[in-house]
Amino acid sequence: MVMRLIFTLLAWMLAMPVLAQDAVSVMEANRTQIEQPSRTTIGPVIDALTASGDPAVAEILAAWEGRRLGVLPDGTFVIADGDALTDLSGGPVEGNAAMLRPNAGVRGLIASALVQFQLVDPDPAARTAARDAIARNSTPEHLPLIRAALAIAPDPGLERLERLLTIRFDPDPAKRVAAIESFGSTLSLDVRAALNPLLATVRVATLAAPQGNVADEIPLSELGREGAYDLLVKAGLAPARLTTEAARQALIAHISDGRVAGVPVADLDTQASRDEAYSALEAAGAVPPAATEDEVDAALASARFADVYAEADPAVTDAARDALRGIHTKVGGMQVADLALDGISLASIYFLAAIGLAITFGVMRVINMAHGDFIMMGAYTGYVVQQVVPNYTLSLVIALPLAFAVTFAAGVLLERLVIRHLYKRPLETLLATFGVSIMLQQLAKNIFGTQARPLTAPDWLSGALTVNDVVSISWIRVAIFVLALLFLGLYLFIMRRTRLGLEVRAVQQNPAMAASMGISPGRINMLAFGLGSGIAGIAGVAIGLFAQVTSELGQQYIVQSFMTVVVGGVGSIFGTLAGAALIGFLQKGIEWLNPSNTLAAQTYMILFIIIFIQFRPRGIIALKGRAAGD
Predict the structure, then answer these.
(1) pLDDT tens-digit profile of 498-534?
(2) Whole-structure pTM value
(3) How many domains does the chain have?
(4) Residue 94 in domain
(5) Is there a single domain that holds both residue 545 and residue 436?
(6) DSSP letter string, 452-488
(7) Same structural domain for residues 400 and 429?
(8) Using CA of residue 130, residue 134, residue 139, residue 140, what is the dihedral sign?
């Protein structure tokens, strides 16, 4: 194949001086149309050029389309390449050329003719551009050009386009069916775009058995009396319906000696008598044909209605229907998978927002209403870092530990100044931390204003992980999922493999016994509260990458965070994970059932959780042992 292609190219090169005369003669013979082209007259000229077989035709057409084709004062056609001029045989010339300026319509015809040359262009970019141009605006004439290009050199993308055009334009039904079956149940939109028109139907009315590729016969009850008769009128099988006003005007206009068509005016007090009089006038040619109610009923009684495929061959429509049925089944499965990915993504966000609360509320039993504002503080920390470090990747690397440090310090400060004085007083703790939350929000407004601040993700987090035309997930959400797993592992390592985790569990189960063993419950509570607050700060950086960073950012997640911890099971990290999964999947499922009202989805979710807690008050994974009784 390679050797044959080389020999073909060598033959073209050797024949070029002779063949170039063919292109020149065509140009000379049609000089007037080329210099003053119009869309209606230039087509045959372009066809003659392409039919000449001259290898220079591609360059001539490309120059003409790009407005680089000109004419010297002596009438010689030249091609401009910057300041240099060459004649159509490639020889250099000099002079002042007048460039031809074809309009958009003519350039479109030239571009269509160029496709056959671009499909075999050595430059892959040119072949791709030609393929994309055909895909955007396909015609039956493109199919033989593509097949000719494939005969010279294989191209997977071009082979796929050939099958799509075969489905649409090939006159052989067997080839079309084979092309349809070759795609299987692919989810590609271009395949569905090629198959759907094959199942388009036209509703027709006939007085005999429907002809053509009939999709389904339609009963009169489904169409309705008026709609069915309108189809008959549209098909030219019945006259237009006689309206009451038209019948009245016609009868009045033909009153003669107190009669209308032999019927006394006094007897025209019923619809039947008026229809009889109009029919008599119609038979005499005095009024235009129009259907009375009885005639409408008679016409409908003998008529048949059907949906007929625009595609004439039943084998093609059967293959298209089977393929689309398989595609729709696969699309349904992919939609479920996409919904599951959305649920995992939302669950990851809720888990990341709630993991800090699982420590402060689940371990320490402290209702911290300012937890959401620690998330907000982390997001603003990331924003400030980006103002100082413009490199988004480096700023993110700096922002994550800095957000942890800032919110850890804020959490320790809150615990030392407020929380430590309110242990075992949940109502006072709730009110105090709620006041701290309001204060932090107002402080953020005073510093950063009320406008949303951008927290920009690095380029490698932009875009989405696309599986197919249905399933995709943004890279930011993938990163949040990975970050949630990392913090799950970090929490388990700290709580089960470090001395701090051992002391936290000891204080959680029995503070008095832990104190007698030399553990300071106050110090452990402070560190645990700081750790939970620091994790909330890191969650704020992650959430700020896709959400608007405002002073109310944390309030959007505080309710879900508490629900995640309570539903999962207070004090259990795996319970928190299970609660986040339940709430995330539940919310996405309700939104899928009612996509137009996300507020309703949150309302239904809260109602479900209230009912769930009635039956399982300790959550999905309840603590066992001594800690469960606290």
Answers:
(1) 888 888 888 877 778 888 888 888 888 888 889 889 9
(2) 0.64
(3) 3
(4) yes
(5) yes
(6) -B--PPPGGGSSEEESSSS-EEEHHHHHHHHHHHHHH
(7) yes
(8) positive
